[in-house]
Amino acid sequence: MKTNATALQQLPPQEKGSGLYVFLVCIVAALGGLLFGYDTGVIAGGIGFLQQHFELDPSFEKGWTAASALIGCTIGVSIAGLLSDWLGRKRVLIIAAVLFFVSAVGTAVPKDITMFVIFRIIGGVGVGAASITSPMYIAEISPARIRGRLVSVNQFAIVTGFLVVYLANYFIAAHGAGIDRTRVEEHVAEHGAALSVEAVSTFINKRCPEVGDEEIKAFVEQQGENLHARVVVDLLKKHKIETSTLDVELAGYAIPSWSVRHAWRWMFGSEALPALMLFVLLFLVPESPRWLTKQNRSGQALAILTRVDGAEYAEKELAEIKDAIALETGSIRQLLEPGMRIVLVIGIVLAVLQQVTGINVFLYFGTEIFKKMGSGTNAALLQTVVVGAVNLSFTIVAIWTVDRLGRRPLMMIGSAGMGLSLLAMGLAAFCGRTELWLLLFILGYIACFALSVGPVTWVILSEIFPTRIRGRAMGIATVCLWVANYIISQTFPMMDENKWLIDKFHHAFPFWLYGVFCVILLAFVLRFVPETKGKTLEQIEKHWITRT
Fold first, then answer.
1. Distance between CA atoms of 453 and 415, rounded to whole angstroms?
2. Contacts of residue 190, Cβ cutoff 8 Å, sequence gap at least 6
3. pLDDT, tens digit, for every residue of 478-532?
């Protein structure tokens, strides 16, 4: 195999094809998935620092800052389908890489929260475009016998992106905590350990306004000269507000926190490197053979298909692609015809249910959830890394089983496991238990999602739509997915901070609500989703046309 810069595009056709060639091409395309995970996961480590730096309201503003990127995602998938049918899958991925890079730089240097949100939305457009185009490209270049596995590589890349950014967040935060601790020690050595009463009172009021001025005054007077960071932490803990002695000391000594001022900038800016890598590598891969065939460039398509799995496969596959295209109108109205409407409904419902089962609550707000369980910032970030590692590990299991067990069995096993884990989390929250062993239920939920609903939903969405309108049809389903994602991400802090829901359910309500959606997902897959294991895209398409 050639190793020069154009190796992936210009390798000569071979009779037997090359599995390595297909794998390398899919890996490059899957980098779009890695940026998907990186861009959406970085907020988990940065949201706490952003809240302090910009003094965000803990319910709406905090939720909006975290969810704003999803507005961009919705825009991205709305236009990516049309663009991928017009410009091609490869060019859309190149545009997405540029948007990732711009967002990374822009979110690292904003002067105010408005500018931060604008650049987050720009990055979201890239995420939306990649979320639809990467799996579609991989599905269209992969042989049927390993297509499920290779499309699942995209989900593997997504969760790898989450894990990588969780690790980056952890090390950046740990570095910042070290700087802040050194500053505190230097201040104590020079000025003594007495905390400023006024500064501590202001800190308590900002972190927990419901404490009240009178209670704060009484507390400070009671402590007198024994006003230490630990007792302030204990006071806030009684009001369900988690903080650290370091945070109290920084406030009490009026020392600006490096982490609050700078850590989040490095977290978001670190995305620029993988974005640049994706941009460069995309120039080395070919265009989708199915898209080339639609553009009457069958010679190029045949050469790519031959390289994928040999000359015999290429000729047969090209003939099936042409037959499938001949049966299509190319109009989005095709999806609204009798018999085909069910395809659109299945795609939309699966996309929405993937999100409303609550996965991104743990991926976006996991660090804040762990803080409420009693962990400090660094420990919470480390626990988030564990979540990312479990997500990655069980996605690998899904990759190796999706073409063996099939799509339906994995979806049913996973949705049932997610529902049971959410039920347990809700019961623990209702009973007021916040011990660290609750992490096991969260990890069980993440494992079930990674084994099934996460990767397999994308596999199904990349398979079930007709070739000529696959981009636009996936766009519709994925727009619905991102809208659902936005609603969940925006409403979780609102539900979790709602006093009436807290009084009635003790923070259990969101988990039980997501558990109900897991039951709905299980029933829907059982009743409506067909098995597509081992079928070519053209056979799947003919199945729907035959039903019509």
1. 7
2. none
3. 788 888 988 988 888 888 878 888 888 888 899 999 999 999 999 999 988 888 7
Q: Which of 59, 547, 162 is nearest to 342 (CA)?
A: 547
Measured CA to CA, the distance from residue 541 to residue 235 in angstroms comes to: 62
Q: Are residues 364 and 499 in the same domain?
A: yes
Residue carrying the six token digits 């007792």: 231
> Is residue 380 left, alpha or beta, with left meaning phi > 0 and alpha meaning psi from -120 to 50?
alpha
Compute how many other C-beta atoms are within 10 angstroms of the C-beta atom of residue 416: 16
Q: Which helix (H) or strand (E) holds 346?
A: helix 341-356
Q: Classify residue 183: in a domain, yes or no.
A: no
Q: Answer whether 396's CB lies under 8 Å from 149's CB.
A: no
Which value, in Å, is the radius of gyration of the alpha carbons in the chain?
25
**Type of residue found at 470:** R
Is the distance from CB of 494 to CB of 59 less than 8 angstroms?
yes
Cα gap 446→388, rounded to integer Å: 9
What's the burial of 151, exposed, middle or buried (CB within 10 Å: 0-12/13-18/19+)? buried
Q: With contact defined as beta carbons under 8 Å apart, do 508 and 426 qualify?
A: yes
d(CA 458, CA 12): 31
For 76, other C-beta atoms within 10 Å of its C-beta total 34
Clarify whether residues 322 and 230 are in a common domain. Answer: no
Counting every residue written for the chain, the total comes to: 548
Range of the domain at 316: 289-326
Q: Give dist(CA 145, CA 536) in Å, integer.
A: 8
Please spell the DSSP secondary structure of 218-260, one letter per residue. HHHHHHGGG--HHHHHHHHHHTT----HHHHHHHHTTPPPHII
Number of domains within the chain: 3
Residue 258, domain member (yes or no): no
The string of pLDDT tens digits covering residues 138-196 is 888 888 778 778 877 887 888 889 889 989 999 999 999 999 999 999 999 998 888 88
